[in-house]
Structures are given as C-alpha cells and as structure tokens.
Amino acid sequence: MPPKAIGPYRVLETLGSGGAGTVYRALDRRSNDEVALKLLSTGPSLDDRAARRLVREFETLADLSHPNVVKVFEAGVHEGWPYLAMELIEGLTLRHYLDVSLGGGPPTPPPRGPLSIRRTEDDDFGSVDGPDEDPDDDSAVDDDDGTFGLNAFAEEAPSEDLASFHGGAGDDSDSDDVPVDPRREPARKASPTARPGATPPRMADLNRPERMGRLKDALLQVCEALAYIHGHGLVHRDLKPSNIMVDDDRQVRLMDFGLAKFLADDAGITADGKLVGTYRYMAPEQILGEPLDGRSDLYSLGVILYELMSGRPPFDAKTPHELWRQVLETEAPPLLALNLHGDPQLARVAHRLIRKEPDDRFQTAEEVYEALSE
Ligand SMILES: Nc1ncnc2c1ncn2[C@@H]1O[C@H](COP(=O)(O)OP(=O)(O)OP(=O)(O)O)[C@@H](O)[C@H]1O
C-alpha cells in the first residue's frame, strides 16, 4: 500500500519502482500541481546532517533548467526517508519507447516539427510508417538467424552489494575499504535479467527506419542534456535506458540525475559498501572506482546505443565478475557482425564511445551530437 501522503504531497498512484525507491504520481497540496515523487528506500540514514546535505545537493539541481533534463522541484524527508519531487513526465522510458518485442513498440507518434535542438538539413529520420513487417510474426529464432535472446533488453538491478562478491558471510576480507575489485570471485550470480514472456524481435524490426529515426532523434536530445550537465561540471553516473524518458511529444528527459552522487562517495560507493550505478552501463574507470568525468557518461551512452542497435549489450555475462573482466579486458564484438544491416555510422559512434580509455572516446557530448548527425 502506498503512503497516503508524503510531506506536502498527496499520493495518487504508484508509477513504478527501481533499485533506489518508488515513484508516485502525487499532488502538491500547496499548488494543486501534479508531480512525480520519488521516495528513496536506500541511502544514508537521514540524521540531521544527511538531511541538510540532501536539501543542499538538490537545491543545486533545482537551479538547473534544460528542456531535456527532468525538472527537480524540491527534496525533503518523509519518516526518515528522503524524497524528491520532480516534473511528471507522461511518456515512456527509452527502453519501452524503442522496444520492438512488444509487437512493434508504442503507437507511432504523429510527425512533429523540428526539435528545439540543432539538427543538420540532411538528417534522415525515415518514413513514419516504416516498411511492412508482419506484427504477428513472433517466431522465436536464435541469434544466428538475426534475432536476439530474451534478456537482451533487460537491465540488472543496480547497487549490488559488494560484500556478496567477496565470498559471502564467512568472508572477513577487507570488503569495507575495497571499492570494486573485479579480480575477486563473486559469491552469487547477478540478478536474473530475462523478462518473462518477451518475444525476441527480429533484426529487421530493430532496423526499421521509423525505429532508427526515433532512436537517433532521442539520442541527439540525450546529447543535448549531457552537454548541458557536463557544462555545469556535473556527471550523471547512472545513465541507462530506464533513466531516459520520452514524452508524448517525443521530447526526451534525462532522469535520476544527481541521485548516484547523493547515494555514494566520490568513488561511487555507498556508506554500506554498495556500488551505485548499473553494471552493464558502467565505464571501466567507474568499475575501478577511479575519478569520473563526462566521458564516463559517454561510455554509458555507447552501451545504450550498441544495445539498442544490436539487441544485446556489448558485454554480456552471467556474473558481475565476468562482466567486469570483459569490460576491462576484452573488445566488444563488432556491432555490424551482430546486426548485418545496422547503420554503419551509428555503429562507428557506438564503438568509439565504448573505448576503454576515456582519451580514446569522443571527448564531449557535442562531438557525439555532431557524429550522430552525419
Ligand atoms: N518524473 C517521472 N514522471 C513519470 N514517471 C516517472 C518519473 N520518474 C520515474 N517514473 C516512472 O517510475 C518508474 C520507476 O522509476 P525509478 O527511477 O524508481 O526506477 P528506474 O529508473 O527504473 O530504476 P533505478 O532507480 O534502479 O535507476 C520508471 O520506470 C518510470 O516509469
């Protein structure tokens, strides 16, 4: 049962839950405006000092204003748990917006005018209707036939407990002060990722011009948002498809910005030893607990692009340990080997974004924007 009220907000319904808490549709009783209210269920225990820090950090965010960054209104504390009031987005997360496994994705929005962002004249966003595909054809075939597995679009649970990778309860090793050490053997598998009942889409579905147009359009807007926050000296730290929402007008909003930083220290580790972020999208330097900058977000953007183009993440493993090994040591399979008819320019952009060394990636979101526009 959701709470009836949180601070000055009346809770109307539950919108969804994630690793860090639950999001409600709520009414601000002071203004009668509807907001999205995120009640965090993880994080520091909120003594007075932590509560002051929460309010201070989110005051900074509330000052930010960009059409592609979700507006944060205020932060508060409800029965010891922090909450954030933010702009209510009527739309879908990027994953669902581009999900072809549910019978072709959401209804095609009507064509709209140019976005408020820069765009080159020859951008090709494809026809709105796309080529004829049989929506009933859900034949499950394997990767060799050009489709991908059931768990291709799923995400892992974030904030896995590092202690669980250190040999379990009997392990008295230095788990408290070791941020992330991929050489350690994990004690258990990563959370299950398959989405029950999902039908593997075909590569032809992934490559539909209408879908590729939506993907490119959304990513250009993500670049705008990243350029803005990086320009303010901030790093998102947990960029992934579920933290990107697309509203009914196809306007993208970057979500959960600032949360990872609030929940963790500079190395991305929480007070109780958890790594904040979502493994699949983490840059090598983030896994290693090294200092992050905007290029770490660009790595995450590359994973998103690779995954949404090929139907599988660049590094796919059953355990965090194996995933970290791959991210640190191996090269991702060529995207165009997985998706023979994928867009070569977008594939090049994805591969450059997921380079291991930040210096070898695109250096700014503006550069990525330009490359996506070519
Ligand atoms: N501002 C918002 N407006 C409308 N719906 C929202 C908003 N923020 C979140 N939601 C909805 O609530 C769901 C849960 O969001 P939440 O941020 O808790 O989870 P997540 O991003 O999927 O995972 P995590 O917190 O682990 O990163 C989202 O998938 C989205 O559908």
From TrEMBL:
Q: Which UniProt keywords apply?
A: ATP-binding, Cytoplasm, Cytoskeleton, Kinase, Nucleotide-binding, Serine/threonine-protein kinase, Transferase
Check the record and name the InterPro entries matching this protein: Kinase-like_dom_sf (IPR011009), Prot_kinase_dom (IPR000719), Ser-Thr/Tyr_kinase_cat_dom (IPR001245), Ser/Thr_kinase_AS (IPR008271)
**Per the record, where are the segments of Acidic residues compositional bias?**
122-146
Compartmental location: Cytoplasm, Cytoskeleton, Microtubule organizing center, Centrosome; Cytoplasm, Cytoskeleton, Spindle pole
* SMART domains assigned: S_TKc
Q: Which GO terms describe its cellular component?
A: centrosome; spindle pole
* UniProt cross-references to Pfam families, sorted A to Z: PK_Tyr_Ser-Thr
Q: Could you tell me which residue ranges the Protein kinase domain spans?
A: 9-372
Domain of life of the native organism: Bacteria
- GO molecular function terms attached to this record: ATP binding; protein serine/threonine kinase activity
Q: Kindly list any coiled-coil regions of this protein.
A: none
Could you tell me which residues belong to the region Disordered?
103-149, 162-207
The family line of this record is: Belongs to the protein kinase superfamily. NEK Ser/Thr protein kinase family. NIMA subfamily.
| Protein name in UniProt | Serine/threonine protein kinase
**Which species is the source of this protein?**
Corallococcus llansteffanensis
Its organism's taxonomic lineage begins at: Bacteria, Pseudomonadati, Myxococcota, Myxococcia, Myxococcales
